[in-house]
Each structure stands twice: as C-alpha cells, then as structure tokens.
Amino acid sequence: MKKENIEKFVYLCARNEEDELNQPKIKVVYCCEEEKQKKQEKPTNGETKIEEKKKEEESKFEPLAKEQSIKKKILKIGSGDNIIIGHRIEFYYKCELYPTKNPIHDERFQSCVVGNAEIIPGLEIALTSMKVGEEAEFIIEPSLAYGQLGCPGLIPPNATLLFYIRAGSVKNGTEQELIKTREEKEKQAQDLWKEAKELFKLGQYEKSGSYFRKAANLLGKDDNSTEEEKNEQ
Fold first, then answer.
1. Selection from 34, 129, 135, 121 nearest residue 91 by Cα
2. Which residues does 159 contact at the CB level (< 8 Å), separation at least 6?
3. By the number of CB atoms within 10 A of the CB, which of 63, 65, 83, 90 ranks highest?
4. Do 196 and 188 form a contact (C-beta atoms < 8 A)?
5. Is the full-model pTM beyond 0.70?
6. 187 close to 206: Cβ distance less than 8 angstroms
7. pLDDT truncated to tens, each residue of the chain (233 aa)?
8. 117, exposed or middle or buried, with CB in 10 Å at 0-12, 13-18, 19+?
C-alpha cells in the first residue's frame, strides 16, 4: 500500500472515532521517515554493550580528591608509609589503553623520585595517593598522560590510560635528586626532543619514542606549550 493511501486510511479511522461534539478522541500521526530516523539513531546492541560495560567498570573507581582527571580502584590496602613528594619510590606497574585494554607495557619495575618529572604527571599524582604495599588501578585522562601528541609508535594522541601499580619501598631522595628548576627541565627537554626527532628520521622509532617520553615527562602537561612549539613538534 502506498504511503499516501496509508495516511488517508489512518486519517479516516481517526474521524470515525469523533464524538458528538466533533472532538477527536485520538490523534494518529504516521511518518515513515521519522520512524526510520529513530531506528537509525539507536545504537547497535554491540555499541550498547560496550558502553554499559565501560560504565559498570568505571563505577568501581573513585576520582581522587585533589585531581578529578584520575580515578582510582584499590585492589590491596597498603600498610606502610604514605608516599610523598621527594620520596624515592620503587614500584611495579602495567599500562593499557582504556577502555580497549590494548597493552602498552607488561608489568615492569620502576624507580624514581616523586616530583622530579621522571614519569608522567598522572602517575606521580597516583603514587602520592598510595601507601607502601598498596596495589591499585588508575584511569588517567590524556591531560595528565601524553596529551594531544601521544607517543609516536606507542601511544595514540588523546589516549586515556589504565595503570596497575604495586607500590614497593620508599626512601628520602638526596639533595641532588630533588626537584630541578623549571629552566633546567626545559633545557633538558629541548635537547631530548631534538635528539628524538633525529632518531625518528633515521627510523629508530623505539629509541625515538623513549626520548619523546622523557621530554614530555620533564615538561609535565603539554597544554601550556605555544601553538608555534606544537607545530614544530
């Protein structure tokens, strides 16, 4: 039956239902295109399941009080000292892309002075929320990870990361290890960045990525860099 005939039929059915005051009891609207559009806008079952799974998983995490861009889920409560800026911390970590869970790093050992820009800002903040012996997972947004640039060949731009961290022993850093000045960091980061670009041109992608990461860690958030610097990068 043609669309025009269907609409006419529906209209006549509605008229037959009018009462003595000529007030229609029902209003019937028929529009094939609207119905089709509504169906198209609905997500597929696969997309719905992925979103539901993501929401269910994130509901187990709590945002950190001092940084809402990081969410934390405690797996094992620690019994040692609180980790603070200036501590040299030994820990194990594993990193994945979130929410796809594509692996970036398998579990590996790391030692660093917290606050010395040796690791990404989000990881430093995550560590200062932990105690020695604690195990936890963290969802870290791009602004506190590798930002708009990502890490060539390893981490895509604007990537949210999932970290598993197991905090080990701590000790106070030496005077030489404590926080460098901003000028020293910028100078060292520029040198690393130039070297990384040269290695990238030579096809040494893994080593280049390592230098890019070190430069990004020294500078912390890359949101403060100028447009000219971003274009050069």
1. 135
2. 97, 142, 145, 146, 150
3. 83
4. no
5. no
6. no
7. 555 555 544 454 555 554 444 554 444 444 455 555 555 555 566 667 777 877 888 889 999 987 889 999 999 999 888 999 888 899 999 999 999 889 998 889 998 889 888 899 999 999 999 999 999 999 999 999 999 888 888 899 999 999 999 998 887 755 444 444 456 667 777 877 888 888 788 887 777 777 787 777 766 543 333 334 434 44
8. buried
Amino acid at 133: G
How far is Cα 133 from Cα 83, in angstroms, rounded to an integer?
Answer: 11
The answer to whether 204 and 118 have CB atoms below 8 angstroms apart is no
**CA neighbours closer than 13 Å in the CB half-sphere of residue 77:** 1
Backbone angles phi, psi at 60, to 5 degrees: -85, -10
Q: Give the tokens for residue 6.
A: 């269907």
